[in-house]
Amino acid sequence: MNNHQIKSLTDIFTGLTTVELASRLNVTASCLEQTKEEANFSAWSKQQDPEAVSWRYDRLSDRYLVNLGFSKV
Q1: Can you spell out the DSSP letters for 38-67?
Q2: What is the pLDDT of residue 1?
């Protein structure tokens, strides 16, 4: 598989399709479809991502967005 790289801020704000993120994470699209609704998806995607980026699935847009979670200090 050829990894999909984040090329611009547009990729970050508009997200990636299932095929694009599957390529980036080096998994199949069906694997991604099966795991997208799981509670640990963000942590799992971060482990799979070549740059340790955490992702989340957005049902409304049907795309995967960078998970911009902020921890409490």
Answers
A1: STTHHHHHHHHSTT---EEEETTTTEEEE-
A2: 42
- Amino acid of residue 12: I
Here the contacts of 64-72 (C-beta below 8 Å, separation 24 or greater) are 64/15, 64/16, 64/17, 64/18, 64/20, 64/21, 64/32, 64/36, 65/12, 65/13, 65/15, 66/12, 66/15, 67/42, 69/42
Q: What is the pLDDT along the chain (73 residues), one digit of tens a residue?
A: 445 566 666 666 789 999 999 999 999 999 999 999 999 999 999 999 999 999 999 999 999 999 886 655 4
The long-range contacts involving 53-56, CB below 8 angstroms and separated by at least 24 positions, are: 53/6, 55/16, 55/21
